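PROTOCOL LOG
Step 1. Enter all chains and additional molecules of the complex.
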Amino acid sequence: MADSISYFLMAWLDPSLLMLTAIGTLAGIYVGAIPGLSVTMATSILISFTFAWDVNDALALIVGIYTGGVYGGSRTAILLNIPGAPSSVATSFDGYPLAQQGEAGQAIGLSTVMSVIGGLLGTLVLASVAPYLSDMALQFAPRDYFLIAVLGLLLVGSLAAESLSRGIFAASLGAVIGLVGLDPVTADPRFTMGSMQLMGGIHYVVVMIGMFGVAEAFFQLHQLNVKPVRQNVDKIIPSLHLVLKFLPLSIRTSLIGVIVGALPGTGGDIASLFAYDHAKRSVKNPSKPFGQGAYEGLVAPETANNAAVGGAYVPMLTLGMPGDAVTAIIIGALVIHGLNPGPMLMIQTPHIFWFTVGNLALANIFLLIFGLTGIKVFAKVVELPKAILIPLILVLCVVGSYSLNSSMTEVYWMLGFGLLGYFMKIFRFQMGPVILGVILGPLMDETYRQAMSSVGDDSGAFLLALVTNPLSLILSMAVVLLLLSNTPLKAMLARRKTR
Amino acid sequence: MSKDTQLKAGERAFNGLLLLFSLGILYEAYQIAGLASINSPGAFPIMLGLIMTGSMLAILWGQRHHPKPDTRGALDEARQFTRQHFPLPIVVFSAMAIGYLVLLQLVGFLIATVLFLFVSQVYLRRGRWLASALITLGATAIIYALFKLLFQVYLP
Amino acid sequence: MIKQLLTGLALSAGTLAAVSPAFADYPERNVEGVIQWGAGGATDNVARSLTPHVEEALGTSIVLNNRPGGTGVIGMNTVMQKPANGYTVLYGAENPQLYPIMGLADFDYSAMTPINVIGQGLVVIAAPADKDWQNFGDLLDYAHEHPGELRMGGTGAGGLPSTVLAMVNSVDSLDVRNVTFGGDGPGITAMLGGHIDFMPLSLAAAQQHIASGRLKGLAVLTKASIEELPDTPPITDALPQIESYLPWGPFWAVAVRKDTPEEIVATLSDAYRKGVAHEDFQRFLAENGGKALNLQGEEAEQFLERWQSVTAWALQKAGSAKVSPEEVGIPKP
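Step 2. Run joint prediction.
Step 3. Record the structure below.
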């Protein structure tokens, strides 16, 4: 026990580790904020500097970048409606409207505090129940991942505000975009139209930058002469009262984040969408209607995606199985430093576990400090005249999509999706479901086929398995409930009651 | 309420195009592996194609009684659509954006970006070339430093 | 006006042409490393432990990306779509050598320039620890009694598990359900949760989990038991007839596009040779049951051809090749 505490405090007491965590967090915030620069990329570049270092130094830097990077995506989502990373897509739903109402400062302040709360809760869960959580995560069979993907796709019901049919269409379109390329099982080309370029698939960040960033920029061109909203930057740090008010919600959404994050194969992007949906369903009287600047719509995804960081460490530290791309890089780093990041890690080198936990907690403290400074300057970005902002946004979108693959192909795709998004926006289609489809479509396809193969391609046995296994049964019931609440059936039932 | 349900100029045409597109997806999906098995590379795509077609039909069906846009004939509708959604600034800016992409490949990131930012800002702000020039140089320098120097991203 | 524009264009094209052959500066930026299998698998482990030593020798960062799917076709195709300038390298496994006979793609390693054949691995057939089977013979008996019921973790046609399955099926009958994952990493995760019943894995990916007691080894694909897993019997104990295919094992290689300039290939080969030879990496390979090869150029090509001809004809004999090796020009061993 005493050992654990001393390892936990190691990063807090050692000046150089303290510095590295701080630098990592700061760098992470900016990497995360720029669409096209991903945390994965930043970690893999920075990690190569660290091989000559002590292992703890390297880990401290990575933890900082990871924590900062997941948070950073919310900045551009709120200010410009361009999510810096897929895990911030849900943040833009209410964050951007808030910025348009002159509350960009408050939105960033609140999202910072909530990210820290989510991050700390995620760390707490990691520290207290990691082995149990990883055992639970292992219980998820392919059919359960399939059900999770179905659950996720049913979120269109709450993302597509007015028209369910349009939401369903947009989500399916997204799924089709996600499937473009070679089939992962048989390597058959799908929707590639014979093009070799398309065989590698379409990167979802391209879709995201195009449909959110470029389409929005085109829309803003209509309002060139509208004076930008003056940003109110007085009360940036949310009051304790406000934080306490959202505490129950943030605890629930953090739990969603940490669990989804701990499942190998799902991460912060899916977690934040689930959390947003949960907030929308469970909060009866939001500060403003959802989609028009509800604080709750900001709290939920921001707590969830940062809690997912702690979750992603769970399978990595307990089983040596990466929870996402960043933890895969960390595993590589541990190997280089002569450690065995497998299932024996916690037994052979328990200090790595407590060091990581302490470090995550520390990185979240730095996140609070760095996140809350400089907000005023950032909020002013929204006050820039549209005529200056729009060209800058376009350059940023171009650079971001180019840097994904160092090729112009992605840039043209991005612009194409921007145009499609502009048209779809004009005719009342929403962008959220498209991204949902892009993220979840491939997961659903892959897990459906794994589940089918597991039962010998017998659809009866497949359906039976969905209700006979306890975990699957719970998920199936959630699917049915969500389906009922999304369809006219609920309205019919409600009407009968009132009669 | 009527304002909400009234069809926008070009909406029927756009939805019609999406329906055609959905049918195209369905056809492409069928081409992948036919209907041989419920566990094939084409199974999920076919389902998606069906859902897209179905939801598009539902949208069109739901709109069949909605008031038509206040236009006289298809040509007028197209004209109204262009005027509403593609006014001159948008068309010019799109052209500049495409020009920017072409320039990127020809002359490299720095020159293309400076040109694009400067010209588009001067156009959108109708003058103010000094302020535009300063902002252009500043922004390009920041983006260049961030991507190329700090993160060693390869720029065209 | 137009004339001016054209001269401008010609000028810039001229400078481009004048600048581009200056390969002496390679590498002047990050190199992207595409791993054709998912995170946490054997290829991934090998790539991630080798790369830092290569970076040291190369003097630049190599950003690693997993592009799994389609038995690695997706990752390999990604590299083949990139410019042939040495800034994208493929970290591949043995699978591309089977693409032609599996009808997965019409290319194999001969469509690229090998930089290094890093090493060769051993195969272990693993199962969750709570299964009753003690060895591969028990599993075979069970499968004979319950044909088509066992769930085998696979990685797609031409992947290691399906190759091993084909070899087994050529001398015995093992009728199973093949559940496909994006690599041995996700497969192991599913096996830890008991969602599949067994999976042939490369030792590099499975060893740690067998040591931890969550998985158990039923057989190693060798003629005699091995040092790393002394308690796991060789597969010939249960299936003596399979001996004709042994020794067989996966390998890992690094390759770039065929048209990459020679100077760049030389720089890369040199860096990878030093990286593979690094004592830390050698120790990593040894600990994970791998045999270092460190082959370049001609030697690498010969190794690749030999491996392909041996395995392809074995699969043909087992009746699981979709296209005859003869048809795609693979000579008999």
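Step 4. Note key features.
Chain B has two domains: 2-85, 88-150.
Chain B is about 75% helix and 0% strand.
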